[in-house]
Amino acid sequence: MTLDRQVRDAHAAWLQIRNWESAKIVALLESIAEALDSAKSELVPVAMEETNLPEARLTGEVGRTTGQLRLMARAVEDRTYLDITIDYADASLTPPRPDLRLKTTSLGVVGVFGASNFPFAFGVAGGDTAAALAAGCAVVIKVNPGHPRVSRMVGEIMIAAALKAGAPAGLISLVEDFDSGLALVEHPLTAAIAFTGSTHGGRALFDVANRRENPIPFYGELGGLNPVFVTRAAASDKAKETAEGFLGSITMGAGQFCTKPGFLIVDGASAINTELSTLVSVAPAQKLLNSNIVKSHDKNRDEIAQVPGMRLIAQNSDGGDTNVSVYTISGKDFLAAGESARREVFGPTAVVVDCSDSAELLKVAESFSGTLTSGIHATESDPMDLSLLISHLERISGRIVWNQWPTGLAVTWAMHHGGPYPASTNPLFTSVGAKAILRFRRPVTYQNFPQRYLSPVLQDGSAELNGARINGK
Amino acid sequence: MTLDRQVRDAHAAWLQIRNWESAKIVALLESIAEALDSAKSELVPVAMEETNLPEARLTGEVGRTTGQLRLMARAVEDRTYLDITIDYADASLTPPRPDLRLKTTSLGVVGVFGASNFPFAFGVAGGDTAAALAAGCAVVIKVNPGHPRVSRMVGEIMIAAALKAGAPAGLISLVEDFDSGLALVEHPLTAAIAFTGSTHGGRALFDVANRRENPIPFYGELGGLNPVFVTRAAASDKAKETAEGFLGSITMGAGQFCTKPGFLIVDGASAINTELSTLVSVAPAQKLLNSNIVKSHDKNRDEIAQVPGMRLIAQNSDGGDTNVSVYTISGKDFLAAGESARREVFGPTAVVVDCSDSAELLKVAESFSGTLTSGIHATESDPMDLSLLISHLERISGRIVWNQWPTGLAVTWAMHHGGPYPASTNPLFTSVGAKAILRFRRPVTYQNFPQRYLSPVLQDGSAELNGARINGK
């Protein structure tokens, strides 16, 4: 089938479901979740072959994926995504106010580009697909070339489960080749794009979406350097604990997480560096997703190693596809190096920036820009006043983590996964958690409408008006 | 002062106010509103000279402008724009959930580009400025070249009122020349742009914002064709009333409104066209904003007159800068002409599309795309089933108006002024009404934070937690 035909079919399917009552959308999401849970034992081995990720992680990831689908079902039941807002007519105002009733409506066909590092949770049935379907959209999904077989399997399961739940054919479909992905972003009937992946690839598609005759919303989650800051007190009181936590976080998923803390900025790093040199050298072997990722990791690592003043603390030697490598650099050299030192290395490589005092730590903080997360490690009654640091981190981060590590993302209502560019191409929205549904709905106001042509949720006396904003209250 | 210095000063001022308590922002907005109300009698005569708009309209517009500032103050007091959402830590979950607290934060320096047609309400102190200040942002405002003198006066009044309310210098400033406007969109410290104006100019700046190394949110309200559909029953039962309403709407503000209904699509237009030919010929003289607008109106009108099958119904002859011109074309010819017939003419020109039946009316409806508003005129118990028409209008419109006219915009909570491109470059947000504040805030999640470093509104026991979403409820 051509891409054009596929998008047209998706558009036609969307027209059929766009006014579905919420119970049918909930049933659709739950049908898909149930089918994926049932197929777990067939899916995981294929994903293991394609991604080198271990069984326990992938099994857990299927559960996370179906959990995301079910959280989206709860968000649909919750109805706040409809944003129902009513101002009744009021002839006593100057000028007189007409009857105005607002609710959101679904955008249309959403093109989804999944990531390489989470074959399930950010894959074909991942968070973006769940959010788009929950919003009442159709999806055309570009398969990540890193795991085509398991993606096809998930796609078939989803499509069958959707048909079983009464969805029209064409509501969900996959494309595989690069050119079809590009054509999907350009297609006149595509209404929005959701992308998770590299800054380079995401930016290229963002540019295509904005060059369209009618530009469309592009939700790209492109990554982050995720700097974590350690006060002098914490560096001295909790050197071992901090070094262990950092190493655990940068090797989780073999360092292939968009929330990996690539930079640990320490006010006095010598104790932590000593701990790291022991710990890193005996770190377990790392298997990366595929040979392309190994190549690009090693290249980026070697480039960061060339930054003047950069020094290797330790590397592990236990086989694997590549080494775990932790470098260190003084705050002064880091600041002198500029952009070349602030580079995302996808894989198990990280940098400790060794600052001479808290003022230099703040200067290093100010050299970072848009990032998904940032973090602070401090003691219970830390002598450093962290207000200035927090103030800067608020300006650049989507999430700030205190005395924990940024990897491992809770999928909840209060999660924000986004942030100023390049964390996200639209910093107002999260790509993870219940609020991710909001990306695929836009408001429409109905002025002076007769009851019979209003959506049931906006009609006088509808249950949905309870708790809605009425006359500004 | 150079533009660079100006944006840096605005950024520094933003850093000072970004954590202001809401009462101080409310006082700032009310101080500006009060100062503008007091200066009404000095402002209106200058605006009259610069825009040719009549005294009554401009006096009312100052009131609308200060009403917008006060509505924004109410939105700040309301606090829902903070979007406070909390998930408390829960160790019993798999995986255990950390404490997550989300609130929105202001974006930074907002560049505001005001419109020519509303020197006050969409001008220097207009809706975008009010929304950005309410959100806790600084503003650098590009003055519209159509009314520089009154813009400077409004700017001086605003800046003085802001200082009086305790705002730091630099929080509000103006730029005038074209190159400074461009540099404002490109400046690294500019965090978002709000633009109201032509599709051509807005698209050019949208492209600049997206070409930045770090693209920023661009909220452009670029216009619309605002098609209004009339059923056969309404065309016959209410021909005179419909013709009068239509003429009133297309000549309000001399047709220089972005919500002007440029196209009236009628199932059987002969009675309405007969009424229009009488009414239009005696329509009052029109004074346009300035000679450039006259030139561009006349050029666009003459081009639409050249569309094959287009026929002039009537033109007024009462002096003025240009004529009121209403054309008509058959549905068949309109569809055959394609894009060349669907052209926005800024000024008192409009087109009646005369359809032979309701099926053709639907086909014409489907030829329209993104628009701020659309409308339907029908009778009480209209025999036409309007579901299909409404379904299409929902897909292309930000607001749908029933048996009223789209001009005259209520500034309320339930208003949506936006829509698919080119109505808006971001169809998820309104540029008018209380929700316009949402464009200038983005979420941040605080994970595992100690109470002492949380914003007061997120601390345990804060009044703002009442009514907030806690643990997904």
Model description:
Two copies of one chain form a homodimer. In chain A, the strands form three sheets. Chain A has a seven-stranded mixed sheet with strand order 10-11-12-9-8-13-14, sandwiched between helices. The first copy, chain A, has a five-stranded parallel sheet with strand order 5-4-3-6-7, sandwiched between helices. In chain A, strands 15-2-1-16 form a four-stranded mixed sheet, with no helix packed on it. The first copy, chain A, is α/β, with parallel strands linked by helices. Chain A folds into two domains: about 5-220 and about 425-465, Aldehyde Dehydrogenase, Chain A, domain 1; about 230-400, Aldehyde Dehydrogenase, Chain A, domain 2. Chain A contains 15 helices and 16 strands. The interface between A and B is large, with 74 and 74 residues. Strand 14 (about 395-400) of chain A pairs parallel with strand 15 (about 440-445) of chain B. Chains A, B: InterPro entries: Ald_DH/histidinol_DH (IPR016161), Ald_DH_C (IPR016163), Ald_DH_N (IPR016162), Aldehyde_DH_dom (IPR015590), Aldehyde_DH_Superfamily (IPR050740), ALDH_KGSADH (IPR044151).
Oligomer: homodimer
**CATH topology name of the largest domain in chain A:** Aldehyde Dehydrogenase, Chain A, domain 1
Secondary-structure content class of chain A: alpha/beta
- Please provide the count of β strands of chain A: 16
Distance between the termini of chain A: 51 Å
Poorly predicted runs of chain A are none
Major sheet description of chain A: 7 strands, mixed
